[in-house]
Design brief:
Layout lengths: L1 E6 L11 H10 L4 E7 L3 H13 L4 E9 L5 E5 L11 H10 L3 E4 L12 H6 L6 E6 L5 H14 L2 E5 L11 E4 L6 H9 L2 E4 L4 H16 L1
Parallel strand pairs: 1-2, 2-3, 5-6, 6-7
Antiparallel strand pairs: 1-8, 3-4, 4-5, 8-9
Amino acid sequence: MLADLHMHSEHSWDCTTPVDELLDAAVAAGLGALAVTDHNTIGGGLEARARAVERGLPLQVIVGSEVKTAADGEVIGLFLHDDVPRGLTFAETLERIRAQGGLVYVPHPFDHFHTTPAGALLERHAGAIDVLETANARLWLERDNRAAERFAGEHGLRRGAGSDAHVPAGIGTGVLRLAPFDDPASFLRAVDDAEIVRRPRNMLRLQVEKRRRQRRKTS
């Protein structure tokens, strides 16, 4: 099945996509699994999981959150049960994710347009990273994805893929094709043998759509 491991709903400050619209777009994109990773909250993931069950949708929803660290960019926690506070150090954020049985997924680690952890910091904590995002469909510079791919290869890390979608049209643009899973352990086994699938959209159009929806919300 196809799994998109990084996307946002209206629970994120910079996204206006209602959860039901997100789920509809995921089904239309042919996803079998998705991780809802709103900024500093698991609220979107919890709502999406509950709504998918209520609606009987063929979607497996992973509850996640993209957590802002104090000075080293963002870390995504997958399979979370509780919010991880923003503003902790990189190491503390990893510890909080692991303390609740979650998985550490590092998004867009070399993106020139985000605050990101230094390479030396990633190297120091490579053993605690469960999945490194090497295919983020929303990056403006593909060389940043290639840098992540090189780092993953050098350190023996699992590769992840996500759309980082902030509008419905972006959902499913970066995914993994992987075997079914039902918990963090089987998820990691599935990622070990997964294939990255890119289904690019026009980045400028997606950004224009994001701004248009934000203006409509505030008008």
